[in-house]
Amino acid sequence: MKKKAHIRKDGSPSYKQEIRIHGRRITKRFSRISDAEKWYAEMKRQKELIESGLSQSISSELRLKEYADIWMENRKNQGKPLGSWLTDRERLHKWVLPVFGDRYLQTISSQEFETFMDRLVTKEGLSATTRNRVRAVLHKLYNDGKRQGYVQINPVSNVVLWKEGKEAFDYLHSIHECQAYLIHAEGESQAFYVFATLALNTGARLGEILALQNQDVDLENRRIHVCKLKEYRNGEICKRTKGGVDRWLGINDEVYEVLAAQRRTGWSKPKDFVVHRSGESLDARSIRSVHWRVCKKAGLRKIRIHDLRHTFASHYVMNGGSLHDLQALLGHSSPMMTQRYAHLAPGYLEKKASVVRIGKPAENVRALRLAEP
Questions:
Q1: What is the reported pLDDT for 59?
Q2: I want to staple 229 with a disulfide (CB 3.0 to 4.6 A). Which of 125, 207, 237, 363 is the partner?
């Protein structure tokens, strides 16, 4: 049966064609029925190839907003931490899709993306860091699309990163401040004292510490397996870290003493949470509430709980630790992140001025040299 045309406002005909591939509806309109039929025949051929597993490519007819929905759903199913997943979705829906959502995935050029991202800073007032995070989401989206056969190239690869300024964050500058924090942490509860000791001595994230179970802690070999994350939005345990890579952290004497004492109390079953109240893992909100109280009682400035992680990173570098090793300890995917976290205390580099000392020789050495035949 001949397809009926829809008449546009200008009186011209419009022929709509529609096809579903893997449950996704693809729709297109044509001015000529012959073009509509030709397009449908081609898409039907692609549908048969795709559903038989012989092809993955339907990129020329896939819009960015359509693939973004597929991509986000896949990321959720693959176990992407909820907080990070929601942040990525917000960046796409707030900034990217209103501009490019209706464009076909493979037709957006590198220049268009770069102009758009630069305008986020110059016109929308976003920071260079936020601009780069938007770029990172798009870069990952296109990389996955390329791997799956939806696009041939990743146009975001050619978009330059902007230089990021140092984020404003604080940390406990001196050992005395750290000790005062721990003393008052112990006064609050054993659970918070365990958390504070782990945070300051390992640099692990809040969610990583709250997800730790005894089976993740090898006291005999003095190491901790960081492999899970407690979501702060819904309290669920996600069986992967923020960066998606497990890591092992060492246990120093301070951490060993605290964890060994806890196990001597009888709380030693493999699935028992390390930081707990009556067997239940504590939530991030209650930890933050106690943290503010500890800062106040210890007479410390009000720092964020994430700044305990910054404290570990800063003291690690100030005591001679390398940035390369610190990147692995913190679980960062790029050195850029480590550079931002591992800033040094004011005046630290100036104090290192005497490490290299080059000057004129001492008078007695000069005299000896003059006396040589």
A1: 47
A2: 207
Q: What residue ranges in the chain does DSSP mark as E strands?
A: 6-7, 13-21, 24-30, 217-218, 223-226, 229-230, 237-238, 247-250, 276-277, 280-281
User: Which residues of the chain fall short of a pLDDT of 50?
Assistant: 1, 54, 58-59, 342, 345
Closest CA to 99 of 119, 74, 72: 119
β-bridge partners, 24: 21
**What distance in Å separates the CA atoms of residue 83 and residue 10, rounded to the nearest whole number?**
48
Tell how far CA 20 is from the center of its chain. 35
Same domain, residue pair 134 and 281: no
Domain identity same for 18 and 107: no
Query: φ and ψ at 226, to 5 degrees?
Result: -95, 110
202, 331: one domain: yes
Q: What is the DSSP string of 69-99?
A: HHHHHHHHHTT--HHHHHHHHHHIIIIIHHH
How would DSSP label each residue in 30-54?
Answer: ESSHHHHHHHHHHHHHHHHHHHTTS
CATH number for the domain harbouring residue 255: 1.10.443.10
Residue found by looking up tokens 């090793």 in the block: 325
Give the chain's domain count: 3
Q: Domain check: are 70 and 44 in the same one?
A: no
User: CB within 8 A of 82, min separation 6: which ones?
Assistant: 231, 233, 234, 236, 238
Whole-number Å distance between alpha carbons of 335 and 226: 20
DSSP 153-204: --GGGGSPPPPPPPP------SHHHHHHHHHHHHHH-HHHHHHHHHHHHH--
- Amino acid, single-letter form, for residue 44: K
Amino acid identity of residue 174, one-letter, is S
Is 221 within a domain?
A: yes
Pick the closest to residue 140 from 122, 124, 159, 126 (CA basis): 159
CA dist., res. 151 & res. 60, Å (int): 8
